[in-house]
Amino acid sequence: MKFLDEYRDQALAEKIIGEIRKTVTRPWVLMEVCGGQTHSIVKYGLDYLLPKEVELVHGPGCPVCVTSLEMIDKALAIATRPDVIFCSFGDMLRVPGSDVDLLILKSRGADIRVVYSPMDCLKIARAHPDKKVVFFAIGFETTAPANAMSVWQARQQGVKNFSILVSHVLVPPSIASILQSPLNRVQGFLGPGHVCAVMGYREYEPISARFRVPIVITGFEPLDLLEGTLMTLRQLEQGRAEVENQYSRIVQREGNRVAQDLVNKVFEVCDRKWRGVGSIPKSGYKLRWEFREHDAERIFDVKEIDTKEPEACISGLVLKGVKKPHDCPAFGKHCTPEHPLGATMVSAEGACAAYYAYGRHLQPRKHETELEATR
Amino acid sequence: MCLAIPGKVLEIQQDAQGVRMGRTNFGGVVKQVCLEYTPEVQCGDYVLVHVGFALSKVDEAEAERTYQALEDMKQLGELETPEFETRDTAPSGGAP
User: Which of A137, A262, A145 is nearest to B55 (CA)?
Assistant: First the structure.
């Protein structure tokens, strides 16, 4: 086994879809939380294979998408400084700020570098002691251990010219926020498998109990997603609301304790503003006071920034699962991956970008138009 | 963004800063991966890797068990749909 190809078997996929058909007796709305899951579902057309009673809506789990405009404008302001080498994951480079993006700044001569891991920045910082090396630390709980380790190692190794601009977000508060919304339609969740590889799934149990909603921790391959869907639907049809673990080859209930320990040493929970959604209490991480000399927000006194968000964009509603990409009049017309208007088009894992990449701006799905007609 | 892929650890050593690292094979592409968060991992194990960090050891027994459960579902399904089974074996003569 290589733990990858086996989970793309077509015959098995058809079998699970058969089981789903046998299980479903009425309409259900499920949300896959993670952008990686959205990408996989749209890439393999899994939502097209499900019976028409089952609607998948796409969740807020794309950290590139939900990084607030203020934070991107701060990143742009820091990256412009001549004494800075600004490092980032590749997918942040084209995210539009109020005026420009990082790629445009790079073309104007700013020293902006794409890294594979935050640890690469430590090497850059050691090689350039005369510069301040800043890493744009975005991500969910999955990425927090890597970012925490970079700061921890910077302190251990005395790399003083390294800092991170933190815009970390957390999944459980965002799920709770969706469930509390009066617009909510979601009845069951495919939980974020890789987030739970780090954090475990204990913190989802009170959410499931409080809101009477099934949450099935699910992987990212086609068979994972179909099995997670089946498990969620079985709970709904049987009137159960529990946390179950489809992704048991990777995820344990307690998660990775070693990683959690270091994350908790370096970060603390804070309120965080999500692009398109607004501020959610206790939904992010910031650096602890002890690590302030590696905190880019403290080092670079970036002034209050006036942000401008395009008016036409409905990405906030897409992120909350209220709207689908083709509900937006701009989708695929004046909003494309080359010229994104907002959050969900900028990253490959955003719902709008995934729909665009797999040709869904060209023709809407047949049974979706039928569903619209019956609503 | 939360993309993480499984790879097989080929060799474990410490880097110049004393960080536990593993040479890891991802379907032919070999990269260095930080193993600080997976102290239990040994050579030959599969790990789930995200931005250069192993986050979890792949539980091979559990993977086998899940996959087998899915396979069993397939077997069961074949028994339930005899029309696919009988087509080739139906007697050639005597049909009306």
Answer: A145
